[in-house]
Amino acid sequence: MDVLVGDILTMKKKHPCGSDQWLVLRIGADFKMRCLGCGHEIMNTRAKVEKQIKKISRGEENA
Predict the structure, then answer these.
(1) CA–CA gap between residue 59 and residue 63 (Å, rounded)
(2) What is the mean pLDDT of residues 34-49?
């Protein structure tokens, strides 16, 4: 998948805060992402994240 730092990912499942959008902070074997609803940061494996992505939106940094 073509995911870059600064992209906003819309995921299939919602975070407990109710938001389903995440900002990509770091990519590699793992993804570091920040919830755009509550600001919680997580790290997850690339395979798990790519399976859950519904939509990729480019942030202002990549436009």
Answers:
(1) 7
(2) 96
